[in-house]
Design goal:
The complex is a heterodimer of chains A (383) and B (329).
Chain A: H1 3-9, H2 13-23, H3 25-47, E1 54-57, E2 60-62, H4 71-88, H5 90-93, H6 97-116, E3 134-136, H7 170-206, H8 208-222, H9 226-236, H10 243-253, H11 256-270, H12 273-280, H13 285-322, H14 333-342, H15 348-376
Chain B: H1 2-28, H2 32-37, H3 51-61, H4 67-79, H5 93-128, H6 133-147, H7 150-161, H8 185-223, H9 226-233, H10 238-256, H11 258-275, H12 281-291, H13 294-322
The chains are: A mainly alpha (383), B mainly alpha (329).
């Protein structure tokens, strides 16, 4: 059989999952919405900003928007296209993974080093009223932290989602808040994955005392309602509620489900012949775990992680809502809802729009999770 | 069964130990406490401290002792039922918690019961009509409900039906009207029920979604079993097959998953009670965190964790009771 024929008849595990996943319209559209949300989050500074994108005045062309970008905005702006590029050229990567992996690390390191020395210019002025022979303003010409003269204005053409108690534009805050919510969901769940897979994997592979210890620990953690533990942790360690701290707390309190899952999968898989075969061929424990057991448990892990991202986003918005979230100027969806709690008698838009955004995000993640669950279900193999 | 129960109870001891250790460490390792002792609390953040309070802090945290000694001292006090006194009003923590327990138990309890009553028929219907339009719309509606944050629903419900610019049907805040104390018993009860409708709705729909998912899966599982085929083969009506044969077996796992809902319900209660200003345990937790009332935070965390642990035990026992096949021997 030549290579081409092989391509036609052979469908890899990932390809089969993808085919099942893509056949489910809920899951497919959920994924599309998530991708769209990430693009919006990456482009937020260009969608809502008080600075012009291009400004021509006195015969000089300037781009006032760029000096004001925060490091995290640069990160979104640079890493999302980088991830897309890596995704599209993934086939080439598999030929020489080492070199390509190193070059990606190099690019990331370069970006981080440059960003470490980059200080954004905090320019409180805006380009809305400043005269210019030509200017291109973002669609929503307000910055998320800019207070305006008209507080509590209901949705209108000027402010499509209304304004809050200090006259900040809700649409601008929501666009920039998308970044907070999405990155918290992603990073918090990555931390949970790291802890959950490590502990669950060790327990499932080595069994014995490690297993007993990990299981007790999971049981103890599960006795504390997640939000309660997070609230206590945040209130006790409140140095400043920065984003990474909140990510870490959410991640470190939501790994138990994953650990249980990985432990179960590892227990099941390690009783099968293939890990023993690998061991007989001289593979060490680490190699058996990472190269043989983990790839086989990846499907269920991915499903659980997807649902985990949704719940991390929900937890973050609950925290901000209760006033334990990000520091004041950082916009987040929960933060707008916190404002809504105080003025709910008349300002419905403060609750409606961020609520809708959270709803759409969480629903998309849940649809993707559900679609993945159906796709990795071994009972589907016959199809 | 008895041997199993005894073994299960013994297995709880290390977990209980771990719960107390984690609660203790969380407060002991917190970098905020030494900062408080150094006088970082200012009038501005509401944590100004008199010399007396500082003494109290040092005494409470046993900071002059080594962590291990301090832990066992604290554990000894807890085992004697002494959760020390609140910083805010110097009343015993246990008293402050018990007086608020009733309200939280009643709203979470009714939320749980209502969600079961609604979720099981919905889940069963979806399973019976698998793949049809009704199944897909139920799935969609359930996902929609599941994805609306409870606090968001609470805010919009308050705005649209309770005292906002639209309908003014239900009271907005609190557990009772101002004049609740002078009402007759029936008027009081009615007033209480009116005040509880919105909080209970907000707490219900989250668990409703997950329970109905579970019942759908569980029912689908039961419908695929051989005994259902046998029942159909011997000519029973579809109604009998579903109600008597499939449903009864599907109910076993559904009944026991109520414990999975409990941590979520308690988390929900913290949010819902703070929105509707209900004087329950969740609000106490929130207020204590805000006021830095560490004895109350520790006491509440410990009690909630133990309640959750006991409910896990209950689920295990219940499982053995409802399913005669499980013997655990």
């Amino acid at each position: 059989m030549n290579d081409a024929a092989h391509e036609i008849y052979h469908e890899s595990y990932a390809q089969r999952i993808w085919r099942h996943f893509y056949a489910d319209s809920f899951a497919r559209n959920g994924l599309r919405v998530i991708v769209a949300l990430f693009i919006i989050a990456a482009l937020a500074p260009f969608l809502a900003n008080s600075h012009a994108i291009i400004r021509v005045a006195d015969g000089r062309v300037t781009f006032p928007i760029f000096p004001s970008l925060e490091p995290i905005e640069w990160r979104f702006l640079l890493y999302v296209p980088l991830a897309t590029l890596v995704y599209f050229f993934r086939k080439r990567f598999s030929h020489r993974p080492g070199i390509h992996f190193l070059s990606i690390i190099g690019i990331v390191a370069l970006i981080e080093i440059v960003l470490a020395f980059h200080h954004p210019v905090n320019d409180p002025t805006n380009d809305r009223d400043r005269p210019a022979s030509f200017k291109l303003m973002p669609p929503i010409p307000y910055s998320p932290i800019e207070s305006g003269p008209d507080a509590f204005s209901p949705p209108s053409w000027k402010h499509p989602c209304g304004t809050d108690s200090t006259g900040r534009d809700i649409a601008a805050r929501m666009l920039h808040g998308a970044r907070t919510s999405l990155s918290i969901g992603f990073v918090a769940q990555s931390i949970a994955l790291l802890v959950g897979v490590t502990l669950g994997g060790l327990a499932g592979y080595y069994r014995g005392w490690i297993d007993i210890g990990v299981c007790r620990f999971i049981e103890i953690m599960d006795c504390f309602p997640p939000l309660l533990l997070i609230l206590v942790a945040i209130s006790l360690f409140e140095s400043q509620n920065n984003m990474f701290y909140i990510m870490a707390v959410i991640g470190l309190t939501s790994w138990t489900g994953l650990a249980r899952l990985v432990r179960g999968e590892f227990l099941r898989l390690s009783s099968q012949p293939f890990p023993q075969a690998a061991q007989a061929l001289g593979a060490g424990d680490f190699r058996v775990i990472v190269r043989h057991l983990l790839p086989n448990a990846l499907g269920p892990i991915l499903v659980s992680a997807t649902f985990g991202v949704a719940s991390a986003i929900l937890i973050e918005s609950s925290l901000s809502f209760l006033g334990f979230g990000m520091q004041a100027p950082t916009p987040s969806w929960g933060d707008i809802l916190n404002d809504a709690n105080r003025y709910i008698d008349f300002a419905w838009w403060l609750a409606f729009f961020p609520g809708l955004a959270i709803l759409i995000t969480i629903m998309s993640y849940n649809f993707v999770g559900e679609g993945l669950r159906d796709a990795v279900d071994p009972r589907l193999k016959v199809k | 069964m008895t041997t199993y129960l005894i073994r299960r109870l013994f297995l709880m001891i290390p977990t209980l130990f771990g719960i107390t250790l984690l609660t203790f460490l969380l407060l002991r390792l917190s970098p905020v406490n030494p900062a408080l002792l150094r006088g970082a609390g200012t009038a501005e953040n509401g944590r100004a401290m008199t010399a007396e309070q500082r003494e109290e802090m040092i005494k409470f945290y046993d900071l002059d002792k080594t962590p291990l000694v301090a832990y066992f001292d604290w554990l000894g006090k807890v085992l004697r039922g002494d959760l020390s006194d609140s910083f805010v009003d110097n009343r015993p923590v246990i008293e402050r918690i018990t007086e608020r327990m009733g309200l939280t138990l009643s709203i979470t309890g009714s939320a749980l019961i209502i969600s079961y009553l609604v979720a099981i028929p919905v889940g069963v219907l979806a399973a019976v009509k698998r793949g049809q339009l009704i199944d897909r719309s139920i799935s969609f509606a359930v996902f929609l409900l599941y994805s609306i944050p409870s606090f968001c629903a609470a805010l919009l419900l308050i705005f649209f039906v309770a005292g906002g610019d639209y309908l003014n049907l239900l009271p907005m805040y609190g557990a009772g009207s101002v004049d609740a104390s002078v009402m007759g018993p029936f008027a009081w009860l009615w007033d209480r029920i009116l005040h509880m409708i919105l909080p209970v709705i907000c707490l219900t729909y989250g668990s409703l979604a997950s329970i109905s998912r579970y019942s759908r899966v569980s029912m689908l599982d039961a419908l695929g079993q051989d005994f259902v085929r046998t029942a159909r083969a011997k000519g029973l009506s579809e109604r009998l097959v579903i109600m008597r044969h499939a449903l009864r077996n599907a109910l076993i796992p559904i009944i026991t998953i109520f414990t999975l809902e409990i941590p979520g319900l308690i988390s929900g209660a913290v949010i819902i009670e703070s929105i509707f200003t209900l004087p329950g345990m969740g609000q106490l937790m929130f207020q204590s965190i805000d006021a830095g009332d560490y004895p109350v935070i520790m006491g509440l965390t410990l009690i909630i964790a133990i309640v959750t642990l006991v409910s896990y035990l209950l689920a295990d026992i219940l499982y053995a009771v409802v399913d005669p096949r499980i013997t655990y021997e």
